[in-house]
Structure formats: C-alpha cells, structure tokens
Amino acid sequence: MAGTVMDNxxxxxxxxxxxxxxxxxxxxxxxxGLGLNFKNKTVLDLAxxxxxxxEVFLSLGAGKVIWQDLSEYFYExxxxxxxxxxxxxxxxxxxxSVPLENESVDFVMCRDALFHSPDEKKTVAEIFRVLKEGGYxxxxxxNWRRIIREPxxxxxxxxxxxxxxxxxxxxxxxxxxxxxxxxxxxxxxxCGFKVDMVNRGDSLFSILASK
Length: 211
Ligand SMILES: C[S@@+](CC[C@H](N)C(=O)[O-])C[C@H]1O[C@@H](n2cnc3c(N)ncnc32)[C@H](O)[C@@H]1O
Hints:
The protein is α/β, with parallel strands linked by helices and 211 residues long. It has helices at residues 8-23, 26-32, 52-59, 72-82, 120-130, 144-149, 156-169, 181-191, and strands spanning 42-46, 64-69, 88-92, 105-111, 131-142, 194-200, 204-210. The protein has two domains: 8-142 and 179-210, Rossmann fold; 144-177, no CATH class.
C-alpha cells in the first residue's frame, strides 16, 4: 500500500501537539471559522490522523463522521478517543480510494495530508465523487513560505524545486510537504470544483471549494 505513515515515535509527538492545540481550542476555531453548518451533516476526514478533528465535528452537531487514514497507530488512538460514539465510522485505507457511495457526504476535509497521496489528482477526483451537490471540500497544505523560514540545509533548494518537478513530471523528486497551491487548484478546477476561498497563511495555505 502506498503512502507515508509516520513511525510510532513521530506519531506520538504529532498526537501530543494535536492534543495541546485541541485543548487550547485552536481546532474548534479553525473549523468554526469556515462559517459552515455541520448540524446532522456527514463529514469525511481523509488522512484524518489523531481523531481530534472528529470530536470537533461531532461537537458542532455532525450526524456522522468518517475517519480514514493509513496509520494503524492513529487508528488505535482515534478509536480510544471516540469509543462509545455511534456517529463515527473508521476505515483504514489509502486516500486514493474512499469506500463510500457517490454523492454520499456533505463535507470532506483533507488537512495537511494531500501531498502524501501517491496521485493527488486521483484523490481530488475521489473527493469530488463522494461529495454531494452543494457539498464542501476543505484542504490545508504547507506552503513554500514555510521553507524560507526553516534553517537552511542541503535539502532546502530541493524542497523549493520539488513541487515544480512534481508538477511537470508527476513524479515526486523527494518526499515533500510543500506543494504549489496552483497545482492543487488546477486539479480542483479540472474536477469541476468551485473555489470559494483561498487563504494564504504564513506557513499553510487553505482552500475551501464546493461542488
Ligand atoms: C501530517 S498528518 C495530518 C493528520 C490530520 N489530518 C491533521 O491535520 O492532524 C498526515 C496524515 O496522513 C496519513 N497518510 C499518509 N499517507 C496516506 C495515504 N496514502 N492515505 C491515507 N492517509 C495517509 C498519515 O498516516 C497521517 O495521519
């Protein structure tokens, strides 16, 4: 199975960081900031990770939240957090394929993870397939501004040119979390998404699109 699953040590660090930000209310603020109504909606969190976001969606009244990720470690963590909750479904699987019917979900989130997909274009098309008419897709990814602030090392120039190589050849030259937002936007446009918002943050860009 393709994909990039963090080792347990890194996963645990990531989990603790998410926990801190969850307690501080950061994740609630981010989702509430989208200004969408989640009451009784079906939400798919693709490459969902630690399970914190699922709690956010449920607290905002979502009727069903679907967690999908490749990581067995995060699966166990998320299951533990969400045990006893009937409104959640778990799928361990690659984001190239979502085991859901066409037009069956109201909202898809793919946060800080699309770059892991072996085929970004295919994943975006899969998201479009499962979204209902009028549904929303929310994506965040790290951007090049972040690289510029990182300490320089031999990989720095590679990280900067990697998204361009990826764009023109379809091959990832080095595993990189840094993508060109224009590249992602072009996939969305090709599928038929309407882009409602692009937010260029200091280290992340986020896109809200609708079907
Ligand atoms: C940086 S984490 C983001 C997790 C979560 N979305 C968040 O914002 O906290 C990236 C996630 O992508 C998952 N992942 C990596 N490759 C994947 C793939 N091909 N399909 C599904 N999930 C994948 C990892 O297991 C990890 O949970």
